[in-house]
Amino acid sequence: MRSAEFDREVVLRAAMNAFMEKGYNKTSMQDLKLATGLHPGSIYCAFENKKGLLLASLEQYNLDRSEELKSIFNGQSDALSGLRAYLDSIVSECISGDPAQSCLSQKAINEIAQTDEQAQAVLSQQCVMWQGFMKEVFSQASQQGVITGPRSPQQRAQSLIVGIYGLRTFSQAQKDPDVISGIANQLLIDVCR
Amino acid sequence: MRSAEFDREVVLRAAMNAFMEKGYNKTSMQDLKLATGLHPGSIYCAFENKKGLLLASLEQYNLDRSEELKSIFNGQSDALSGLRAYLDSIVSECISGDPAQSCLSQKAINEIAQTDEQAQAVLSQQCVMWQGFMKEVFSQASQQGVITGPRSPQQRAQSLIVGIYGLRTFSQAQKDPDVISGIANQLLIDVCR
DNA sequence: CTTTATTTTGAATGTTTATTCAAGATAGCT
DNA sequence: AGCTATCTTGAATAAACATTCAAAATAAAG
After folding, report:
1. Taking 90 as the threshold, does the pLDDT of residue B1 lie above it?
2. What is the number of other CB atoms lying within 10 angstroms of the CB of residue A27?
3. Which of B115, B120, B186 sits opposite A159 (nearest CB)?
4. Which residue from B115, B131, B182 is facing A22, i.e. has the nearest CB?
């Protein structure tokens, strides 16, 4: 008996960064070897193959982002302030232009969901979880009386997520910080109306 | 002297479809040879290399889509009806799940804009052109009195484009037609408010 | 019809790719 | 300390890759 030497989380975060930098298909095993410090054999022993490493990275990414999400909303007085802080953090990620601050899930949806059923299933489920969290936020906001109007929390959550996906794509074609920030502000207004 | 045998537009549309099916990096020269019917040498003679073929395809894609855009809006009585028809067409593309009906520009923004400056420049300019067209649509809608409210045509155009990018991404993770259609309807309402 | 410039052809090139595997190392159990 | 199951190592492998090129074909000009 012998336990693995590497720290799984550390390895997966390194792989995440590599995938975000170059995209899944352009990231070679050589890149992953350098990024993780693991030899090919170890990667195959632990994750089966390159796609297995992606799926594991995607799950770690989702865990990390969920934690971050919770901490952003917990650090705010009410749900509306939470939404503001959340969108601010996304805007600054967009503006940074740093690949490490992009969204691995979104990149994977665009690059491989169409051609890989397994990835599609994982990404779809993660999207539903994200929706569930945001729906809860909008429920709370309504209860707290900080937002009013007839739209359901579910509808609001969907519109917000669509807006965030769109913002991330848009900001790669149009890098003006004021424009990105302006669109995000309007998104918040529309979604809370 | 000798003129090329192949029809450039036909070849570029075939390449477009190949790139949309598998994404840029997963599309091999072998795939492109089969899709276009051109031998490697001819592709290199006409487009320099694989990336050159992508850039040319991107330009053809933009031309084709611009024509389509104009014809959708020309076929409607006023700018608001045009917007409705336009969003309907995008919704049905999203619902179809057909890779050939996805958006090559958006796929390219997500897959290669980050790592290729030349592609980034082309895609950025195309995004600006799209914005310019939509801005004009919203100007007309205001003049026609079919939409009111304080937002500028520019802001409306930006929000619409962000919404469309988002819708296309979202619909790959969440395939329920009613959900997609509902989000699109809400997007139109928000953007025209 | 001949010439000439250009395109087409498709096999060959050298690289890069994901993956495998046998040998060596080592942690945990007795 | 010794055993054993498991992990690590990294060179080897075979397939796939983008790209090149010289020979063959052919359209247009004279």
Report:
1. no
2. 21
3. B186
4. B115
